[in-house]
Design brief:
43% of the residues lie in helices and 18% in strands. By secondary structure, the chain is of the alpha/beta class. Helix 8 crosses helix 9 and helix 9 (194-205) packs parallel to helix 14.
Length: 348
């Protein structure tokens, strides 16, 4: 038996060595081929999560012959990036949130571009002058604990009921904890008006069991039974479901606020044609949707509204928002909320 084990060990080590040699040879061949026939690149500047876009690189290369060169930056760095530097090429395409795209446009860092693909995106999700186009929408939904949903089959999942019913335990992300959470406050103020928004949030304050520090907190708390309903982005709610947490996703009957990610062609693009090719490809979600979901990104695609109604039969409906929120106005609204409700209300 010992001799047989030694033979198996030898064969295993030999196989591993052979695999290593083949891999090294393949890498060297790729390096050599790159030197002889340099690939064409499209350079993307983004503040999206690290690794998200690289996961799409092979599929995009297969479809287009272009490789993605992804440069990750913070929001402040994006605004200062300009035409690149000695160590980094200039951006061909920016992929970021809607508010950042609006800023990039105002700073003259984007060039207008329209195509058959951008034209089919709803006007709600693109710049009216074609400086940027939305790609992925993350609507706000209600992540409901399964037991609570079963015990309250007649519950009306609208904003007044969810925020105003004092008997249910509620969780939401603190408005100052993340950009998307802050955006929810701005969306509510635009949709309901500031006075009604503060009235609704004042009622909610009395039965919020916890303000989360992360976007994932509300849906996960609902899944763990620590609250009845979590106000959550759809992306995080689906992630919680995929983690086998017992939640039901309900769409607000009176419509959803939403957070938008999109893309714009850089005004300093060395290869605007390549940027346009990538933008059009990203607007064709069938090319890469499965890969996004494999990497746990469950957004709504602006050219692919295929979400089925929720278990109560309500379809996903988006609030009609302009989203022209200025820094001073956002700061003032957050300050008022903190003073009048967050730290001036019933709970802390």
């Amino acid at each position: 038996m010992k001799r047989l084990a030694s033979v198996f060990l030898f064969l295993l080590l030999a196989a591993l060595a052979f695999w290593g040699i083949l891999r090294f040879a393949r890498q060297q061949a790729e390096v050599k081929a790159e030197k002889l026939y340099p690939s064409e690149y499209v350079t993307v500047y983004t503040d999206m999560p690290s690794g998200m876009l690289e996961a799409l690189g092979d599929t995009f290369y297969h479809d287009s012959g272009l490789k993605m060169n992804v440069v990750y930056q913070s929001k402040s760095q994006l605004l200062k990036s300009g035409s690149g530097s000695d160590s980094m090429p200039a951006a061909d395409l920016y992929i970021t949130s809607q508010d950042m795209l609006i800023r990039l446009k105002n700073e003259k860092m984007l060039s207008p571009y329209a195509s058959a693909q951008t034209d089919t995106a709803l006007n709600l999700f693109k710049d009216e002058e074609c400086y940027w186009t939305g790609l992925w929408v993350d609507p706000v939904v209600f992540a409901v604990n399964e037991d609570y949903a079963k015990k309250h089959p007649a519950f009306a999942y609208n904003w007044n009921e969810v925020l105003g019913r004092s008997s249910l335990r509620l969780s939401m992300t603190d408005f100052i904890a993340a950009d998307m959470a802050e955006d929810l406050l701005m969306c509510m103020a635009e949709h309901f008006g500031i006075e009604q928004t503060f009235s609704l949030l004042g009622k909610a304050q009395k039965h919020i069991v916890q303000y989360g520090k992360y976007l994932s907190t509300p849906s996960r708390m609902a899944g763990m039974g620590k609250c009845d309903i979590g106000i959550s982005g759809l992306n995080e709610a689906i992630r919680s479901q995929k983690d086998k947490m017992p939640i039901v996703i309900m769409y607000p009957e009176d419509g959803s606020p939403w957070y938008l990610f999109g893309a714009g062609v850089s005004s300093d693009a060395a290869h605007p044609d390549r940027a346009q090719k990538l933008l059009n490809w990203l607007l064709t979600s069938s090319e890469y949707k499965e890969q996004m979901e494999e990497n746990q990104y469950y957004y709504i695609y602006v050219n692919d509204f295929t979400k089925e109604p929720d278990s109560d039969g309500h379809s996903l409906d988006f609030w009609n928002l302009e989203k022209m929120y200025f820094d001073e106005g956002k700061k003032d609204l957050l300050t008022q909320w903190g003073e009048k409700i967050r730290f001036g209300g019933t709970n802390s």
